[in-house]
Amino acid sequence: MSDGDCLFCRIVARELPAEVVLDRDEVLAFRDVNPQAPTHVLVIPKQHIASLEAVAEHHGELLAALVAAVNQVARADGVAGGFRVVTNIGRAAGQSVDHLHLHVLGGRPMSWPPG
Ligand code: AMP
């Protein structure tokens, strides 16, 4: 299922350009257009899911595929063993694109708490 008005669905459909780093059956990963770290990749399900809050038990295999993709991206970018995975849920948390995406951030020191 895709949403024609959704920016990331349009990237999945290749209607918009992106620097894709991984393309699997159910998962796509591409570099963030406004990187916040030397490695900043977005890992998304190809199907439209609004956020992590919309994930249900039947998405178990998809979640496993997303996490496997995160780890593969981290290894490929040389940040395995020291990277951060973030997903924002809702405007209050900073979500600006309503299609589930895991930010994979690495390549610089990460402070805590996040802003
Ligand atoms: P969030 O604010 O957590 O919803 O994250 C959305 C992210 O998508 C931001 O980090 C944006 O920089 C990024 N973004 C927006 N448009 C694009 C695009 N066309 N290609 C790649 N990344 C994008």
Can you describe this structure in just a few lines?
The protein has 115 residues and is an alpha+beta fold. Helix content is 20%, strand content 22%.
Brief descriptors of the model:
115 residues, alpha+beta, five-stranded antiparallel β-sheet, 2 helices, binds adenosine monophosphate
Layout of strands and helices, then pairs:
Elements (H helix, E strand, L loop, with lengths): L6 H6 L7 E4 L3 E5 L7 E7 L14 H17 L6 E4 L15 E5 L9
Antiparallel strand pairs: 1-2, 2-3, 3-5, 4-5
Give an overview in words.
With 115 residues, the chain is an alpha+beta fold. Helices cover 20% and strands 22% of the residues. It has helices at residues 7-12, 60-76; strands at 20-23, 27-31, 39-45, 83-86, 102-106. A five-stranded antiparallel sheet has the order 1-2-3-5-4, with helices on one face. A hairpin with a 3-residue loop joins β1 and β2 (27-31). The protein is globular. The protein binds adenosine monophosphate. Residues 7, 16, 18, 30, 32-34, 42, 88, 94-97 line the site of adenosine monophosphate.
Radius of gyration: 14 Å
- Beta-strand share of residues: 15-25%
Spatial arrangement of strands, main beta sheet: 1-2-3-5-4
Count of discrete alpha- or pi-helical segments spanning 4 or more residues: 2
Order of helices and strands: HEEEHEE
Which spans of ≥5 residues are poorly predicted at pLDDT below 50? none
Distance between the termini: 33 Å
Shape: globular
Largest sheet: 5 strands, antiparallel
Helix content: 10-25%
Number of strands: 5
Structural class: alpha+beta
Bound molecules: adenosine monophosphate
Whole-number mean pLDDT: 97
